[in-house]
Amino acid sequence: MNEDLNRSAREVIGEFLKAERIKKNITKYAITKKSGLHPSIVNAIESGSRDYFISSFLTYCQQIDAYIFFGNKEGKSDAAIDPEHMISEINKNKPDQI
Q: In this predicted model, what pLDDT tens digit does every residue of 24-58 receive, in sequence order?
């Protein structure tokens, strides 16, 4: 994917997440304090202005109680991924523990 397409995708995702955060009356400050994410990361996720780590994305999703859905091109999958479960699995498999 080229950078323009990546940025556009980040912007669309960020707009959705920001709208969800606002709808749930969660402040950016609350996310940073509760999660430990730096304010610049929260801004990057919501604005789509730059790349960020998947762990930051998952932590943000966890803070606003958002789920991620994946499907194949035929739309035959409706499985949700719980960010808390994914973070737990990541922490179990950290490279320094392998």
A: 999 999 999 999 999 999 999 999 999 999 999 99
Cα 82 to its chain centre, rounded Å, is 11
Name which of 40, 86, 94 is nearest 62 in CA terms. 86
Q: Where in the chain does DSSP place strands (E)?
A: 68-70, 79-81
Q: What is the pTM of this model?
A: 0.74
**Lookup: tokens for 77:** 């999958």
Who contacts 46 (Cβ-Cβ below 8 Å, separation ≥6)?
Answer: 14, 15, 17, 18, 21, 28
The rounded distance, in Å, linking the Cα atoms of 44 and 48 is: 5
